[in-house]
Specification:
alpha+beta; D-amino Acid Aminotransferase, Chain A, domain 1; D-amino Acid Aminotransferase, Chain A, domain 2; nine-stranded mixed sheet; globular; binds pyridoxal-5'-phosphate; binds 2-OXO-4-methylpentanoic acid
Length: 356
């Protein structure tokens, strides 16, 4: 149990107007959470302080070798005015796995969740309530040792910042176009694809720029070895509906084990749908689309929620899916996931956690 120290500001910022488009990750709230780690001392001095710049030496290790981890989750205000989080224990567990891969000391699950709850409670008035909006929560750890040698740092900073946000894609629930990248790769098995760490996103930028230049929103990565099998999108996991079956790439160590992915699989199974977690080649998708068997494609993620894909490009093939419109299952999943998250729908799996 953390003994959190509070240093609150009275100099509060102006909150966004009701109805003002928020975008994603552009606005920050009044306070942030910080906790230090020092070898021998462990994690210490948990505190909630005014949002402010931090000062680091140019030699701080995070700048050079990318020893860092981040997470993403959201807070919602329900109709009774209570704050709700969606499966925060899963983010805490994934943070532990990411930290292990990056030689960052683990943050105990209950401390991670306690810190998130404490900050969100402090910033409750920042939670937006317009449809499609939420308070995006970004916990992260950085290596702070002042040293240019390549080694695990002996000191770290764990921080949480908050951003009232709308849809991740400017197009909202309009289907996006996705570029299947056949040149660059994002991650390989044995690497750190399963971890949520900056380097994976740095590796994705060149492909993303290429896709954007061609008018596509995101990149769908292929496996790094054979460059044949579908992995995931830049900021979401990917699902297909083929012959009425829900198909998604299995977790193989090189893709992020998405919490929305896990929730979607659980929901689909509970609705009696066949769900397959397996290898899917890009060629299989093309064949299925040409034969009219590829009914839907959607991405899943905290920021992206359920994001329908209307167009997939692979080499010389451009495949249109669901007539470029949102598919039936994608819409049902969007409604159900957001309904549970905001407390509007029954929560049979106990995913929605009320912050007391
Ligand atoms: N894959 C990548 C690369 C991501 O950045 C994200 C976003 O967090 C996801 C998948 C989806 O994960 P989650 O549903 O836990 O947000
Ligand atoms: C999230 O969905 O929480 C993410 O971390 C995606 C992010 C890269 C914007």
């Amino acid at each position: 149990m953390l003994n959190i120290r509070y240093q609150l500001t009275e100099n509060l910022k102006k909150k966004p107007e009701k109805g003002q488009p928020l975008g994603f990750g552009k606005i920050v709230t009044d306070h942030m959470f910080m906790m230090n780690y020092t070898e021998g001392l462990g994690w210490h001095d948990p505190r909630i302080v005014p949002y402010q710049h931090i000062s680091l030496a140019p030699t701080a290790m995070v700048f050079h070798y990318g020893q860092t981890m981040f997470e993403g989750l959201k807070a919602y205000l329900d109709e009774e005015g209570r704050v709700r989080l969606f499966r925060p224990d899963m983010n805490a567990k994934r943070a532990i796995n990411s930290n292990r891969r990056l030689c960052i000391p683990e943050i105990p699950e209950e401390d991670f969740v306690q810190a998130v709850k404490a900050l969100v409670k402090t910033e409750k008035d920042w939670i937006p309530t317009e449809p499609g909006t939420s308070l995006y929560i970004r916990p992260f750890v950085i290596a702070t040792d002042e040293f240019l040698g390549v080694a695990p740092s002996k000191t770290y900073l764990f921080m949480i910042i908050l951003s009232p946000s709308g849809a991740y894609y400017a197009s909202g629930l309009e289907p996006v176009g996705i570029w299947i990248e056949d040149d660059y790769v994002r991650a390989v098995r044995g690497g750190m694809g399963f971890a949520k760490t900056g380097g994976n996103y740095a590796a994705s930028l060149a492909g993303q720029v290429k896709a954007h230049n061609d008018g596509y929103s995101q990149v769908l990565w292929l496996d790094g070895v054979e460059r044949k099998y579908i992995e995931e999108v830049g900021a979401m996991n990917i699902f297909f509906v083929i012959d009425g079956k829900v198909v998604t790439p299995m977790l193989n160590g090189s893709i992020l084990p998405g919490i929305t992915r896990d929730s979607v699989i659980t929901l689909c199974k509970s609705w009696g749908l066949d769900v397959e977690e397996r290898r899917i080649s890009a060629d299989e998708l093309i064949e299925a689309q040409k034969a009219g068997r590829l009914d839907e494609c959607f991405g899943t993620g905290t920021a992206a929620v359920i994001s329908p894909v209307g167009k997939l490009r692979y080499k010389d093939d451009v495949m249109e899916i669901s007539g470029g419109k949102i598919g039936r299952l994608s819409q049902k999943l969007y409604d159900t996931v957001t309904g549970i998250q905001t407390g509007k729908l029954e929560d049979p799996f106990g995913w929605s956690v009320i912050v007391e």
